[in-house]
Amino acid sequence: MSTYYREKILKLHDALFLSPLSGREKFQQLEKQFDTVYLASKDIEDTNIRNRWEEIWQELNKHEGMSFRNHEISSFMQTVGKTRNKTLEKYLHFVLEEFYRVL
Predict the structure, then answer these.
(1) C-alpha to C-alpha distance for 44 and 50, rounded to whole angstroms
(2) What CA–CA distance (Å, rounded) separates 82 from 60?
(3) C-beta separation of 99 from 10 below 8 A
(4) Averaged in consecutive runs of 10 residues, what is the pLDDT profile of the chain (103 residues)?
(5) Assessment of whether the complete model's pTM goes beyond 0.85
(6) Axis-axis angle for helices 3-17, 85-102 (nearest 10)
């Protein structure tokens, strides 16, 4: 397993589960960390995990981004804003599973 991936999944876990923000707000503030973990997952040997990250990333970026004057809303932010809490919970469970797998 990639030590870089391990480091990034641990950091994402801590940011998601130790933050006092709501689930949706956590996702929105951690867009860059999700992107980093997704990219790091491309280097791991386990194809199931790589495929799962690919699936999650596609699901979290299915809506088009928007631009308003000097303000841009990314595809990730648009999708998270429109995603049901039950679906976001599914992603939290996956991050938790990965956290325990890499320990």
Answers:
(1) 7
(2) 10
(3) yes
(4) 91 92 88 94 93 93 75 84 89 95 92
(5) yes
(6) 130
